[in-house]
Specification:
The chain is of the alpha/beta class and about 425 residues long. It has 15 helices and 10 strands. About 30% of the residues are buried.
Length: about 425
C-alpha cells in the first residue's frame, strides 16, 4: 500500500488484490505474486462531461519486489487533472501480469486524454474532406475575373461621381444654353455658325443666350451678315406703291391689312387698297371687311390694264397697297401672269411673303421661282407658329435679299413689326 501511494499519490485507492504463484517445478520453489489494481479517487470530479476511457492501467507490483524492478512496471502515467475516474474493474480491463524480470518493458503509449466539451458547444460528427471539382484553366479564369472586376469598378466610379454631384448641390443648377447652342436649336445652318465663330470671341459665342452680351453680339453680327430694309418707307412728292406676292396660304391679305392699319392709325397716312386676288371667293370679302373697318378705299382689278388705271386713280394717296392672288411656284403660267401684272409700273416695290413654317429647301425654291418677278424684299409671317426660325437667317444669309417685316399672329394691326436686327435676334434667342 505504501508503494502504491508513493507511486500514485495519497489519493490512490486500491480497487482489487489478487494473489497467485508463478515459476518452480510443480509448485516447488515457486514465487508468490500479488497483483494490485488501483486508481485515483478524485479525478472523476474534475471531468464534467462524458470521459473518454483511457488505456487500461498496468498493474502495480507489491512492495516485496525490488524497487528497481517495480520502477519498470508503473501504472499508466495519468496526472490528477486528466486521469480517468474510479470505475469498476471491468471498465479498465483485466489486470496484466508482470513479465519476467529479464524482459524489457514495451514503451508506454501516449495517454488518451478525455475531451472536455462545453455546455453550449454542439458536437458535430467528423467528415472526411470532400473532393473539390477541378478548377478552370488559370489563364481563362483570370481573364474572366479581370473583366468582371473592371466592369464593377467602372459602375462604382459612375455611381460615386453621380452621388458626389447630388450631395454637393442642394438644388441642381439649370443647364446654361450658350449662344451657339441656341442658334443650333433654331436650325441655323452650320456654315453660318462657323462664320459667326470666326467673327466673335470664344467667350461670347459660349455665353449664356439670355445674357446682354449674347444679345448684343448677335445683333452686331446680323447687321453685317444680312440685309434689313426696316419695312415700307414713304416717298416725297409721289405715292409709295407696294405689292405683296407669294405662295398660297402664307397670309398675304391679313398682312396687307396690318400694314395699312399701322400707317393709318399710327402715322395718319392716306392709304388706298387694290386687290387682284379674284381667284379666292372670300379674298375680296375679307379685304373689303378690313377696308370698311379702317375706312379705306378698295379697288378690284382683273388685268394689268385695270391695275394701271387704279394706280392712276389713287395718285393723290401717300401709300397704295396691292394684294395679289397666291401662286404656286411650280406653275409657270401663273408666275408669268403675275409678272405681267406687276410690270405695269416700275415703281412697284414687291414684298415676297413667306411663312416661317416653310422648310429650308422649299423656302429656297420659292425664292428662286419668284425671282421672275424680281422681289425687292422678303416678309416672314407666322413666326409664332414654329419652334425654329433659323430658316429666316439661312435664307437671308445665302440669297442676300432684304428683310422687311415680321409677323407673329392674326391680330390686326398689332401682330406685325418692321424688321430689325434687334427683333430678329430676339426671336432667334427666345
Amino acid at each position: 500500500m505504501a508503494d502504491v501511494k508513493a507511486e500514485l499519490g495519497m489519493d490512490a485507492v486500491i480497487l482489487h488484490t489478487k494473489r497467485y504463484r508463478k515459476g518452480g517445478f510443480l509448485g516447488y520453489k515457486s514465487k508468490e505474486i500479488v497483483e494490485v489494481t488501483a486508481a485515483i479517487e478524485d479525478t472523476a470530479k474534475k471531468v464534467r462531461r462524458t470521459p473518454v476511457l483511457p488505456k487500461p492501467a498496468e498493474p502495480v507490483l507489491p512492495s516485496v519486489m525490488p524497487r528497481s524492478v517495480l520502477s519498470q512496471y508503473k501504472t499508466t502515467g495519468l496526472d490528477t487533472a486528466t486521469a480517468a475516474p474510479a470505475a469498476p474493474l471491468e471498465a479498465f480491463g483485466a489486470a496484466v501480469p508482470m513479465p519476467a524480470p529479464a524482459a524489457a518493458p514495451a514503451p508506454a503509449a501516449e495517454p488518451v486524454r478525455p475531451r472536455i466539451i462545453k455546455a453550449d458547444q454542439q458536437v458535430l460528427p467528423e467528415f472526411s474532406p470532400m473532393v473539390q471539382p477541378a478548377a478552370p484553366e488559370p489563364e481563362a479564369a483570370a481573364g474572366v475575373e479581370q473583366e468582371k472586376i473592371q466592369k464593377l469598378e467602372a459602375e462604382l466610379a459612375q455611381m460615386k461621381d453621380m452621388l458626389t454631384r447630388v450631395m454637393s448641390q442642394d438644388v441642381p443648377e439649370e443647364s446654361v444654353v450658350t449662344l451657339r447652342q441656341a442658334l443650333k436649336e433654331q436650325e441655323v445652318d452650320e456654315e453660318i455658325l462657323k462664320d459667326m465663330v470666326g467673327r466673335m470671341s470664344t467667350g461670347v459665342i459660349l455665353a449664356d443666350k439670355s445674357s446682354p452680351e449674347a444679345q448684343d453680339a448677335l445683333e452686331k453680327y446680323l447687321k453685317k451678315a444680312i440685309r434689313i430694309s426696316e419695312g415700307i418707307t414713304l416717298e416725297n412728292g409721289r405715292p409709295k406703291i407696294a405689292a405683296l406676292i407669294g405662295a398660297t396660304g402664307v397670309g398675304k391679305t391679313t398682312t396687307l391689312a396690318k400694314v395699312a392699319a399701322r400707317f393709318v392709325l399710327e402715322q395718319g397716312v392716306s392709304v388706298a387698297l387694290i386687290t387682284a386676288d379674284t381667284y379666292r371667293i372670300s379674298a375680296v370679302e375679307q379685304l373689303k371687311t378690313y377696308s370698311d373697318i379702317i375706312g379705306l378705299p378698295l379697288d378690284i382689278v382683273y388685268s394689268p390694264e385695270e391695275l394701271k388705271k387704279a394706280i392712276r386713280k389713287h395718285r393723290n394717296k401717300q401709300l397704295i397697297l396691292i394684294d395679289t392672288a397666291g401662286r404656286s411656284q411650280y406653275n409657270e403660267y401663273q408666275m408669268q401672269e403675275l409678272n405681267e401684272l406687276l410690270s405695269v409700273d416700275a415703281s412697284i416695290e414687291k414684298h415676297l411673303v413667306m411663312s416661317s413654317t416653310t422648310k429650308n429647301r422649299d423656302a429656297a425654291d420659292i425664292l428662286e421661282r419668284f425671282s421672275i418677278c424680281s422681289p425687292d424684299c422678303v416678309l416672314f409671317t407666322k413666326t409664332d407658329e414654329t419652334s425654329s426660325v433659323g430658316l429666316i437667317l439661312n435664307l437671308l444669309y445665302k440669297k442676300k435679299i432684304a428683310l422687311s417685316y415680321l409677323t407673329n399672329g392674326q391680330s390686326v394691326p398689332d401682330d406685325i413689326v418692321p424688321a430689325s436686327a434687334e427683333k430678329l435676334a430676339e426671336i432667334l434667342l427666345r
